[in-house]
Amino acid sequence: MSQKASGSAPAHKHCPVCGISIAPTKDYCSNECREIDENGQKRMKNYRRLTLLLMVAALVVLLVLSLFLRRS
Ligand SMILES: [Zn+2]
Prior knowledge:
This protein has one domain (13-71). The chain is 57% helix and 6% strand. It has one helix spanning 31-71, and strands spanning 13-14, 21-22. It has a two-stranded antiparallel sheet with strand order 1-2. Zinc ion binds at residues 15, 17-18, 20, 28-30, 33.
């Protein structure tokens, strides 16, 4: 809360996607913005899963590699 206009401004929120003022009972200004945000969250989840998978794969490769090096 950085801007407080003389205390008479009605309570409102901002759409997290496009940033325009919306009613405090709403989460997004429109169904389009809701879809955009939900798609972004889904993509973020996929991205995190991919990163985790890559890290595990790298760990396994390192483990196998170290085993090979120790044996020879
Ligand atoms: Zn919006």
